[in-house]
Amino acid sequence: MSNVTIMNHPLIKHKISMLRNENTGTNEFRTLVEEIAMLMGYEALRDLPTEDVEIKTPIETCKSPMIAGKKMAVVPILRAGLGMVSGILALVPSAKVGHIGLYRDPETHEPHEYYCKLPDPIEQRTILVVDPMLATGGSGSEAVSFIKQHGGKNIKFMCIIAAPEGLERLQKDHPDIQIYVGQLDRCLNENAYICPGLGDAGDRIFGTK
Ligand SMILES: O=P(O)(O)OC[C@H]1O[C@H](OP(=O)(O)OP(=O)(O)O)[C@H](O)[C@@H]1O
Ligand SMILES: O=c1cc[nH]c(=O)[nH]1
Ligand SMILES: [Mg+2]
Predict the structure, then answer these.
(1) Whose CA is nearest to atom 7 of ligand 2?
(2) Which positions bind 5-phospho-alpha-D-ribose 1-diphosphate (predicted)?
């Protein structure tokens, strides 16, 4: 089964509680999503490959490890995943960015693809798929499948809030990926929204309804 890491840091917990609050407005919500992505990215990118480069210090020349940033891709699931990109790029500014456009049908809750553009060569990169919400797991699982179809191999999935149903599905469909979850919530409601969740992440990030 996939490796799942559930975050256990007070800063992340605190910021997720602020996100959940229905009185948190668009501006603050956006900032929080970016900050949480950065804090979670610190953990998720723990095994990012480094390469030794020659550095001249004021004292002498040495070989010192640096992130091979060109070998990384962050792939947000549109739209809500876009809110997490800047937090990851703050950590790895040279990462390439791919996009996968998916929306969930409001009736069936099935994901529908409307866009896919990934950086080449995708097979050589560490790929971090980001989406704040993992509800039924349909969108996350579909996004990972697309990336695999395009040749992606080393794939990590990062979400801020997951429902047990979605986490189980993603693990079952993709036992080879690593999954990072900010907080695991109780369940889905009859509209496949996460409880207690935070509502519609995309609408809250972009101020739509
Ligand atoms: O696990 P699932 O049941 O597939 O639900 C999660 C998906 O739903 C939301 O996107 P949405 O369809 O609302 O699109 P948006 O980001 O454009 O708002 C969310 O950002 C995930 O992509
Ligand atoms: O709770 C949910 C479920 C799907 N998408 C969201 O944005 N929120
Ligand atoms: Mg949405």
Answers:
(1) 200
(2) 79, 104, 131-139, 200
Domain that holds residue 152: 3-206
Does the complex come out with an ipTM higher than 0.95?
Answer: yes
Question: How many domains, in total, are found in the chain?
Answer: 1
> What CATH number is attached to the domain comprising 166?
3.40.50.2020
Q: Would you state the structure tokens that stand for residue 154, as one six-digit string?
A: 């080393």
Ligand 2 within 6 A of CB of 33: no
DSSP 162-189: E-HHHHHHHHHH-TTSEEEEEEE-SEE-
Model-level pTM?
Answer: 0.95
**∠ at Cα 30 (111, 46), nearest 5°?**
80
Mutate to test the pocket of ligand 2, among 198, 206, 209 (most ligand atoms within 8 A of CB): 198
If one counts every other C-beta atom within 10 angstroms of the C-beta of residue 172, the result is 12
Dig out the tokens for 151 from the structure. 């040749």
- Considering all CA atoms of the chain, what is the largest pairwise distance in Å, rounded to the nearest integer? 65
Length of the chain as a residue count: 209
Reported as a single tens digit per residue, the pLDDT across 95-149 is 999 999 998 898 999 999 999 999 999 999 999 999 999 999 999 999 999 999 9
DSSP assigned state of 35:
H
| Number of DSSP helices (H) and strands (E) in the chain, helices first | 6, 13
In ligand 1, which atom is closest to the CA atom of 139? 4
